[in-house]
Amino acid sequence: MVTITAFDPPADQTSALLAEVGAIVEQLVVHAADRRVLGHPRGDDLVATLREDRPDELPGELHDVLGTLQAVLATGVDNAAPGELAYIPGSGLLTAALGELIANVSNRYTGLAGFTPAAVALEQSVLRWLTELFDLPERAQGVLLSGGSAANLSALVAAREKHAGGRADRATVYVGEHAHASVRKAARIAGIPGANVRVCGSLDGARLDPEAVRVAIKQDLADDLIPIAIVGAAGTTNAGAIDPLGQLAHLARELGVWFHVDAAYGGFFQLTARGRQRLAGIELADSITLDPHKSLFLPFGTGALLVRERDDLARAFAEDADYLRDHAGDLDALPDFSSITPELSRAWRGLRLWLPLQLHGVAAFRDALDATLDLTAMAVERLDAGPNIEVIGHPDLSIVTFRVDGDDSDQDAVLAAVNADGRVRLSSTVIDGRVALRLAILSHRTTEETVDLALRLLASAAHERVGI
Ligand SMILES: Cc1ncc(COP(=O)(O)O)c(C=O)c1O
Fold it and tell me: What are the pocket residues of ligand 1 if the criterion is a CB atom closer than 6 Å to any ligand atom?
């Protein structure tokens, strides 16, 4: 029976706490390959109990309390399992979580560089690695945020401040049909009217058409509106398609607007030779959203924004306060993150990137992403060879969309049959007004075996449903 008797527990209690938590973590990591994405109970009784649960006045017994957590982990969808092929997952790397543990327990303050310059320098080293990965100039600056939505929001605020100042109501933004919903949400939060978010036409139904953007911007200029940003996607959520980034960047420069690339899903493929080739033009962006909690396999809550000109971040987010006058920073040496992001107090997020990058090395991430591209190519080849399945377009990255012969209800039925197995999960979407199935490969845990299983289940479900 262990109870925790102090906020800073004595050695025996701290050891017991770490050992019990360690056992749960060990189970998740060491047996990760056996984790099933589906097939766990929904846990309706547990939900009903937990909703009504309230903390006691007195300390709970350690094992009992952690038992509740284990009960939760035995329910629902395990989206960090190897068979998660439905949505873009994050794997929750142990080394990142441990970095976070140290960051949280030490709780060093990194909103201002002057408190612990070395902690900020450590985070800055990761950010420089990122800006260099994308060939951004010396004056570029990155910031770590909670995710892609926060990064897209910060980018649009910076673009608005640069191009429209206080006239948000006249600002206009140009997006593709398949832009992520967080871009529209960001515009709204940034005070840009929903009607001023121009959804421009596509090439091949998948990629933002630069000519459509040009026409829309010219029209808005003629109407005395203020075009502030073109948003391109480096991997749409729906189909993984990459917009023509180079052309959009040149158009943005020609017309004097900001070019933001939402690379939340696809950005880290830049680490691979194939990805770098496919993402060509991204280096011309004014800002890039990245989501290490997607394509760098880190735990949720890890997003990044890279901005070409660091002064653009300061213009958007710097604010003076008398009580901070002792801590005036010098961005040339180290950034005050509170002056270039919406946050003041912030987690020392850098550690959740720095520790995994140091402990695994960059090549491990490159190889894992390369492996997902190989698995995608294998999936496309086998789906193409199947008698009753049509692949829709060729994937730019690691999301494959396809249709089984038949109508929308056939797609739904085949999806349900595949997912009923529980070891893999696929999803569906709508492309050109028709339901399509979707295979998204983006976990370091997904292996050839996993994809092979998904394809076999799919072939047999398709055969059952539509014959051939
Ligand atoms: C292309 C794209 N942009 C932005 C987002 C939003 O990112 P987050 O969920 O980290 O807020 C997503 C999430 O799926 C995405 O796929």
Answer: 88, 147-149, 152, 180, 182, 233, 237, 262, 264-265, 291, 303
Q: How far is the CA of 181 from the centre of ligand 1 (A)?
A: 8
- Ligand 1 centroid to 312 CA: how many Å? 23
pLDDT of residue 103: 97
Percentage of the chain lying above the pLDDT 70 cut: 99
In what side-by-side order are the strands of the sheet with 399-404? 389-391, 399-404, 434-440, 427-431
**Under CATH, to which class is 108-347 assigned?**
alpha beta
- Alpha-carbon span 384 to 396, nearest angstrom: 16
3-state secondary structure of 128: helix
**Domain layout of the chain by residue ranges:** 108-347
Give CA–CA dist 305/142, Å, rounded. Answer: 6
Backbone angles phi, psi at 347, to 5 degrees: -70, 150
User: In this structure, which residue's CA is closest to atom 5 in ligand 1?
Assistant: 148
Write the DSSP assignment of 327-373 as a string of letters.
G--BTTTB--HHHHSS-SS---THHHHHHHHHHH-HHHHHHHHHHHH
Structure confidence by residue, pLDDT tens digits, 230-257: 999 999 998 899 999 999 999 999 999 9
Residue 196 carries which DSSP code?
G
Residue type present at position 13? Q
C-alpha–C-alpha distance, residues 197 and 187, integer Å: 7
Q: Which residues of the chain have pLDDT under 70?
A: 328-332, 468
- What is the tens place of the pLDDT at every residue in 53-77? 999 999 999 999 999 999 999 999 9
Residues belonging to the chain:
468
Of 163, 270, 174, give the one whose Cα is nearest residue 226. Answer: 163
Q: Which helix (H) or strand (E) holds 287?
A: strand 287-290
The strand ranges marked E within 163-235 are 171-176, 197-200, 202-203, 207-208, 226-233
What does the alpha-carbon distance between residue 217 and residue 198 come to, in Å, rounded to a whole number?
Answer: 9
Q: What whole-number distance in Å separates Cα of residue 160 and Cα of residue 164?
A: 5
**CA-based nearest residue to 304, from 255, 252, 230, 357:** 357
Distance of alpha carbon 276 from the chain centroid: 18
Closest atom of ligand 1 relative to the 237 alpha carbon: 16
